[in-house]
């Protein structure tokens, strides 16, 4: 196992990609703090599955868009586990609006959850990384390279995540901390469950791998970036999209 006794924090860890990441980190030996905002039953289900498989996990509630709440939850995690080795910033929301319907509340909401949460979590967690360093993995989107109509603000908020990833990697590298991001395309989660079938089929047809992503596809790449095997990669956003973006 690659991550034995590493302390990993996963935001948005109660469902979808975050839940798959939490389970995969635990399967590789990490002790996982599953951070969630709502859906306590889902969070406890993830924790229970990890424990039943022989792993160690605990759920922690927090609104990651709230800097004070983030500081509090990180303090609780450190009080429980002593330090943090891995931070996965997965929490995010999607809300589509076309040009004429975009307003200030839409922009503020998406940037608060998708971008500001990454800043809050990193500022709170990184001081608790050990002197030997650690890993930060953020979740962006392939739409930063090719936004579709109605996704401009969402894509912009995730593009900001990739900019933070690159910038903070340069600032934290001397401390032995790598900062990377993954950029999934359409992935089979409840966030994409309402996608019209015609759009889903179009994505499948355009994807060289011939399907949409599964949460486990993303989780495997996150675990690689969280491991020592990725030590020579930092400041990068890795497309995890089955080849879709290059084919657009």
Tell me what you see in this structure.
- There is one protein chain.
- The model has no long low-confidence stretch (mean pLDDT 95).
- This protein has 248 residues and is α/β, with parallel strands linked by helices.
- The protein has eight helices and seven strands, in the order E-H-E-H-E-H-E-H-E-H-E-H-H-E-H.
- Strand 5, helix 5 (152-172) and strand 6 (177-184) form a beta-alpha-beta unit.
- The chain has a seven-stranded parallel sheet, with helices on both faces.
Sheet with most strands: 7 strands, parallel
State the strand order across the main sheet.
3-2-1-4-5-6-7
How many beta strands in the DSSP annotation?
7
CATH architecture: 3-Layer(aba) Sandwich
What is the mean predicted local confidence, pLDDT? 95
What is the number of domains? 1
Helix content: 40-55%
Quick description:
The protein is α/β, with parallel strands linked by helices. It contains 8 helices and 7 strands. The chain has a 7-stranded parallel beta sheet with strand order 3-2-1-4-5-6-7, sandwiched between helices.
Attribute tags:
248 residues, Rossmann fold, 7-stranded parallel sheet, 8 helices
Would you spell out the secondary-structure blueprint of this structure?
Layout: E1 7-11, H1 16-27, E2 31-36, H2 40-52, E3 56-61, H3 67-81, E4 86-89, H4 104-125, E5 134-139, H5 152-172, E6 177-184, H6 197-206, H7 215-226, E7 237-240, H8 244-247
Parallel strand pairs: 1-2, 1-4, 2-3, 4-5, 5-6, 6-7
Helix pairs in contact: 1-2, 1-7, 3-4, 4-5
């Amino acid at each position: 196992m690659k991550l034995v006794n590493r302390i990993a924090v996963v935001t948005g860890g109660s469902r979808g990609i975050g839940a798959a990441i939490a389970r995969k980190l635990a399967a590789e030996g990490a002790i996982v703090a599953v951070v969630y905002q709502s859906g306590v039953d889902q969070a406890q289900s993830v924790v229970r599955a990890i424990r039943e498989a022989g792993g160690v996990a605990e759920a922690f509630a927090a609104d990651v868009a709230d800097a004070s709440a983030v500081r509090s939850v990180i303090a609780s995690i450190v009080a429980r586990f002593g330090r943090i080795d891995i931070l996965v910033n997965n929490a995010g929301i999607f809300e589509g609006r076309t040009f004429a319907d975009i307003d200030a509340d839409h922009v503020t909401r998406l940037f608060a959850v998708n971008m500001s949460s990454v800043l809050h979590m990193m500022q709170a967690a990184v001081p608790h990384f050990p002197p030997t360093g650690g890993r930060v993995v953020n979740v962006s989107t392939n739409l930063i390279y090719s936004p579709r109509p109605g996704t401009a603000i969402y894509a912009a908020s995730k593009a900001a995540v990739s900019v933070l990833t690159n910038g903070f990697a340069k600032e934290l590298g001397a401390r032995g901390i790598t900062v990377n991001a993954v950029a999934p395309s359409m992935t089979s989660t409840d966030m994409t469950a309402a996608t019209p079938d015609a759009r889903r089929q179009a994505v499948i047809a355009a994807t060289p791998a011939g399907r949409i992503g599964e949460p486990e596809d993303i989780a495997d790449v996150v675990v690689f970036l969280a491991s020592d095997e990725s030590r020579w990669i930092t400041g990068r956003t890795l497309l995890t999209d089955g080849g879709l973006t290059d084919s657009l």
